[in-house]
Amino acid sequence: MPPGARNWTGDGALLQFPRAMDAARETSPPAEEDCDVAIVGGGLVGLSLALALAGAGLRVVVVDRDAPADSSADAADGRSSAIAWGSQRVLAAVGVWDLLASDAAAIEDIRVSDGQSRLFLHYDHREVADHPLGFIVENRFTRRALQACAARTPALRWLAPARVVGLGQRPGARLVELADGRRIAARLLVGCDGKASPVREAAGIGVFRHRYGQSGIVATLRHAKAHANVAHERFLPAGPFAMLPLPDRDGAHRSSIVWTEHEALVPGLMGLDADAFAAEAQRRFGDWLGALSLEGRRFAYPLEIVQADACVAERVALAGDAAHAIHPIAGQGFNLGLRDVAALAECVVDAARLGLDIGGGDALERYQRWRRVDNMSLLAVTDALNRLFSNDLPPLRLARRLGLAAVERVAPLKRLFMRHAMGVVGDLPRLVRGERL
Question: What is the pTM of this model?
Answer without folding.
Answer: 0.91
